[in-house]
Amino acid sequence: xxxxxxxxxxxxxxxxxxxxxxxxxxxxxxxxxxxxxxxxxxxxxxxxxxxxxxxxxxxxxxxxxxxxxxxxxxxxxxxxxxxxxxxxxxxxxxxxxxxxxxxxxxxxxxxxxxxxxxxxxxxxxxxxxxxxxxxxxxxxxxxxxxxxxxxxxxxxxxxxxxxxxxxxxxxxxxxxxxxxxxxxxxxxxxxxxxxxxxxxxxxxxxxxxxxxxxxxxxxxxxxxxxxxxxxxxxxxxxxxxxxxxxxxxxxxxxxxxxxxxxxxxxxxxxxxxxxxxxxxxxxxxxxxxxxxxxxxxxxxxxxxxxxxxxxxxxxx
Length: 316
Description:
This protein is mostly beta strands. It has a domain at 165-251: Lipocalin, CATH 2.40.128. Helices cover 8% and strands 59% of the residues. The chain has a 20-stranded antiparallel barrel.
């Protein structure tokens, strides 16, 4: 009885955290995910990810677009997210939570999207509970070039107005988010030639109540792989950002992450990534081991092609 009680409480806490994350992330414009976002190549139909803390299944259509995600906590407790599209655009997202094999209507959500292109594009996202209660509405407004210019959030409590501005200086573009007149975030993007290698550079600054708080600078190669990352905290005494951590990434011949080296003032740590691949062409990894802590992740992958439609999985 005691064990079941604490397990029930833990699941309830997970639900609350999940809903808070969903509500906070909804302020980002809708996007379509595909196999490349999950380090998958080829015509993948389904990818089951198995870790030491649970399982998660990702399903894709023949074009590689994500259509369904299932998170399994146990045989009877799981969450399912459905993605529906029309003309290549996201039109609906449903988050269904099942506890003891029953749908929990109180925590399940439906996101409905509509697009108005009469003038400049406007995407509207309406969020409802499965009890048909209105929770949120977001309007994403774009200019004639397709740049996101505003996010208007409407709830039962009022309206939040996020205005987005763009400034260009010496080939770098700074995108600034102001929420109800207060700066919340800025992202500066540009390019840098480093030892003959062209890198994309992104500097993201986070503000707290309009004041600078943290920052991250990332360097990405032409293949979209993160090469280096710096993290900063704002020092009020120095009136500037101070570097707190440097992270370097190394990749193997097949393009997968091989090592991650983290450096701070007081210590340095290194993680190595070891992969086992399936027999598909092109291959996908089906087991990843992270040393020295020996954490591992196993993937079972099903493909669309008839000649490679068998499941590649790790033997237990």
